[in-house]
Amino acid sequence: MKKLVMLSLLILSLILGGCSQTQTASSENNEGQANSDFPKKPIQLIVPYASGSSTEMIARVLAKGAEKYIPNGQSVVVVNKPGGAATIGATEVHGAKPDGYTLGMLTVSQLSLQPLFGKTVFTHDSFQPILKATVVPQFLTVKSDAPWKTFEEWLEYVKKNPNKFTYATVGAGSTVHISMEALNAAANIKTKAVHFESGGETVTAVLGGHTQGASLLPQTAKEYVKSGDFRILANLGSYKPEGHEDIPLLKEKGLDAEVDVFTGVVAPKGLPKDIQKVIHDAFKQALEDPEVQKQLKEIDVDPKYAGPEEFQKEITESYNEYGEILKNIGLIQ
């Protein structure tokens, strides 16, 4: 009888062990299947700016490139959601289901600057970063008939004439505004911001003599420098883009100030890690694709990769740095 009981227990343990192995294998297969199943439909990449913007051009280049590496032959569709100082699109990304089908191509403006004003439902760490994709500096630009031929001449003038130099921005607290205020603080000078609604209006303001200068992106300044309308005095960023090596960085002039405009892909918080990896790998491969790099350089944008952790670190650092600048000029408390 005792032997019969022991034999029964042995058979039962073998059966249970077999079931456990089967369940484990099934679980592993299901996990593998989950990876291979994504995506089952097109991925939406939201851009919080209107058609024709620099961010949209970057998004379309990267979306097309990423489609080559997204599994299951699915597409990446760029959707423009402008408005609300470029926060409407970001808000939609923030509130979307974290399933990988809604992503955002956001910039330093949405990720680091706008949350500082306390008017958004999201803050600097409310998204799941996928990767940083591009970085561009900004250029201190004046009309070609301005009396300053060099940055040194301009600096000497503004030191002797506080608040006399006016520059056009696309709004208080914008990256344009921040870049000039960072320069003001580093050089212990005072210049005067004049705020407009769009980048086109800032260019018109300089051309029409309504302001004496502006802080412009390379792709905007390039066109007018080539036409002979504008002169670039300094690079307000951290590096020199290809073709602009002769423009001095502020740090080369002994000034500790640099403001770059970064752009990256983010998702709603809570995105599963396996799906995050699929998306990250596809966009990273796109950034490394020679054809994508060529297209980005054609619009004066440099691919600058950073992974999720490093990207979040940069977002947080700029959030803190720009917060101090905005406090110093009285835009926030």
Give an account of the 3D structure.
With 333 residues, the protein is α/β, with parallel strands linked by helices. 45% of the residues lie in helices and 19% in strands. The protein has eleven helices and eleven strands. A six-stranded mixed sheet has the order 2-1-3-10-4-11, with helices on both faces. A five-stranded mixed sheet has the order 7-6-8-5-9. Helix 2 packs across helix 9 and helix 2 packs antiparallel against helix 10. The radius of gyration is 26 Å and the shape is globular. The termini are far apart. Pfam families: TctC. Keywords: Signal. Residues 1-25 form the signal peptide.
Short description:
By secondary structure, the protein is an alpha/beta fold. It is 45% helix and 19% strand. The protein folds into 2 domains: 43-135 and 261-328, Bordetella uptake gene, domain 1 (D-Maltodextrin-Binding Protein, domain 2, 3-Layer(aba) Sandwich); 139-253, Periplasmic binding protein-like II (D-Maltodextrin-Binding Protein, domain 2), CATH 3.40.190.
Q: Which CATH architecture of the largest domain is right?
A: 3-Layer(aba) Sandwich
Number of domains: 2
Helix/strand/pairing class, anyone?
alpha/beta
Level of helix content? 40-55%
- Average pLDDT reading: 89
Total number of strands = 11
Low-confidence segments, given as residue ranges, are 1-35
Shape: globular
Q: In angstroms, what is the radius of gyration?
A: 26 Å
Fourth CATH level, the homologous superfamily of the largest domain? Bordetella uptake gene, domain 1
Termini gap: 84 Å
- Helical segment count: 11
Portion of residues in beta strands equals: 15-25%
Biggest β-sheet, characterized? 6 strands, mixed
Order of helices and strands: HEHEHEHEEHEHEHEHEEHHEH
Order of strands across the widest beta sheet?
A: 2-1-3-10-4-11
